[in-house]
Amino acid sequence: MASACESDEETYSGSESEASDDLDSEQQSDSEDEFQAYTKQPCKYYNRGVCKDGARCSYLHVCKYFLTGSCRYGSSCKLNHSVGGRRSAGASSRTVDQYAASNPQLTDGRPYQWQINDGKGWKDVGNDHIIEAQYSLPHSKSIKIYNTPYGAVNIDFSRMRVYGKNLRVRRLDDGNTMWFWYCTLNRKWKKYGDKDSKGNQGPVKSSDIERKFQSDPKSSFTFTSGGETLEIKFPEMQQVGKKKKRKVTRRPSFRLQQAGIGATQLVLPLQRISLGSKPQWKFEGDRGAWHDFKHRSGTATECSVTSDEIERKYQQNPTDCMMFKVKGQSYKLDFRAMTQINEKTKHTRRIKRVLV
């Protein structure tokens, strides 16, 4: 049975373009138990030095400043910096920092909140579902936001920082995010557990990797595929075998913000950074050049949709698909995979959304 990320000869299925994969009932139950801890509040007595209830306490024995990303002691803090309470307080690495920025910091009720700090406190980013949709794609390394009070802002997803500016960025989470694991295959990202081109299930599930990562982000996950032992090293974010190393990444399953749960009530009173600017949708041509989606009447590339029409559909759901025609042939735009597929020939081209 081939690994999802074992062989270069394996054909990339593109299945990570689906909005999410349902876990079976047993996995779902485990995930719910695991995430319940994130909805609790930190114990005030533990943070003051001692809690008489100890392990029986119903509140989190975790540094309250760690939950907000503002602990000045960092890895030297004497209090616990792990929501699950299973990791030593001194653990520190880039992966742990990324983990802390993604999971335990709780939102005000929304599924997620993207925020930027310019030294004067954390400010919510308006329309942050666009950042979240981009972040949920395993191949996305960053996103550039134009027309902010700080000029153009380029957010590095791997380090959770802003390139070239004295700004900090973070992603708050409500503790109910389902996280997926991917590794590179033929220069593309494939999710652990997906079936290969022959219909064989991968030897390890993404949820199994996530469970081990939650227990200890500085450890590794080992599994066997085709008689070979493979190891996913969390600090390095690599899958290591006897012959090859592969990049690994961890991304959330995209969830739309629900109207009324902070969209107007909680966000508008806060200072916000506008994503502004005009989006333009493009597709990649035969020689690698990028072309705008627009009506081209009487040409070989006559298209039934414009960039503005694509943008309206994208704003409704950044993980959806839409159909259009070029010279009578049907095509499908897959926003999550950022691809254009000819429904007849199955030929695929890349698409992208830029702000101009």
Detailed description of the structure:
This protein has about 350 residues and is α+β, with helices and mostly antiparallel strands. Helices cover about 15% and strands about 30% of the residues. A six-stranded antiparallel sheet has the order 8-7-12-11-10-9, with helices on one face. Strands 15-14-19-18-17-16 form a six-stranded antiparallel sheet, with helices on one face. Strands 6-1-2-13 form a four-stranded mixed sheet, with no helix packed on it. The longest helix has 12 residues, at about 25-35. The chain is globular.
Q: Beta-strand percentage? A: 25-35%
Number of helices: 7
Average pLDDT score: 74
**End-to-end span in angstroms?**
47 Å
Side-by-side strand order of the widest sheet? 8-7-12-11-10-9
Coarse structural class:
alpha+beta
Sheet with most strands: 6 strands, antiparallel
- Count all strands and give the number: 19
Q: Helical percent range?
A: 10-25%
Draw up the topology in text.
Layout: H1 25-36, H2 44-48, H3 64-67, H4 94-102, E1 112-117, E2 122-125, H5 129-135, E3 142-148, E4 151-156, E5 161-162, E6 168-173, E7 179-185, E8 188-191, H6 206-215, E9 220-225, E10 228-233, E11 238-240, E12 245-252, E13 272-273, E14 279-284, E15 290-292, H7 307-316, E16 321-326, E17 329-334, E18 339-342, E19 348-355
Parallel strand pairs: 2-13
Antiparallel strand pairs: 1-2, 1-6, 3-4, 4-5, 7-8, 7-12, 9-10, 10-11, 11-12, 14-15, 14-19, 16-17, 17-18, 18-19
